[in-house]
Amino acid sequence: MGLFSSPSLPACAALESRQKPRSFIFSVLLAAAIAAAIAITIAASPTAQAAESEIQLPPVLLQMIRNKAVHDDLGLNAKQIDELRAVLQLLDGPWLRSRILPANEQQAKVASLELDLFMRLPDILSEDQFKRLKQLRRQALGTRMVLLEDVQAAAMLSDELVSKLAKRYAERDRVTSETQAELASKKISAEEAGERVAAAQAEEQNAVSELLTAEQRSRLSQLIGEPFAFNTVTRLYPSAPELLAVPSDWIKGAPVTLDDLRGKVVAVHFYAFQCINCQRNLPHYQAWHDDYADRGLVVIGIQTPETPSERDPNLVRKAAEREKIGYRILMDRESANWKAWANTMWPTVYLIDQDGLLVRWWQGEMNWQGSEGEKEMRQTIEALLARQEK
After folding, report:
1. Architecture category of domain 247-389 in CATH
2. Total-model pTM
């Protein structure tokens, strides 16, 4: 499973997408437990590694550390939050772009970013804050925290025991992967998929009760500290890359940066004006602009060329006039923005919250064959605007 999977529908392919399509409903089911994440391999003991070397854990630090609820729990001050954001600015771009890497390279890249963040945090947090953060990390990992070496040592878990648990985790991963594939191919419903995943998760949790002694379970409970309400952790994705442009690249509207737009909800869509799939999405973007601009939504179109004609700014302008586009358009002649955002197909649209964080995105036609992508994206826009208006 992957953090960056999103619904993939008919589109003008640029690079072959390595992400398998899956419904947004399923991604929500997985993310609920912070399990829908780019997988990374955490080093366990040598024996456990020999038994199950492919056990994967989500990068929960990269995800949780950008959430206000976590900041509040840790008691971070304004200076610490600013320092933390500066670190995340260094890590978020590579994290986002890792989504198009082959699986093994992706895992290695995200693992290195998670470790980089972990190693930087003691310079930002106090000793007590860092201790609490490690407790939150263990809580977020759930039963799989036993794959962390410090947890194994503190709870006195043997290599043999960790190996047995790893096999149970591998079985859950197998079930989840197969369920994801069946849901993507519409062999099963979202409801059935959710039931399967929940059953597999329950089986994994039962394994801990079954295999650990009462003393070991007690030791584990002491490692997690006070329970944290992870339903308050709603930001699981990186920040949006800054727009790369000079003033002359803006063929419609005044130049702007995403940093200028902090405090506003932003929709950024990538398109090529001759792409039929892009053309079918354009009315939706314009409708968002018409319906929500007065409430603070900013829509930006980025025209990344696929054909020679799409490199001609005059033709891009004429196409925009023909489509009655009323929002800003950026000409991405050299595909610099396309690459920075790690796109793989036209069209793709992203929603960005008031703090510049990616919230969700959609690849391909939003309403292809009865799908309700535009409706779902619109609901997200309305939810973000409502939060802004509180």
Report:
1. 3-Layer(aba) Sandwich (3.40)
2. 0.83
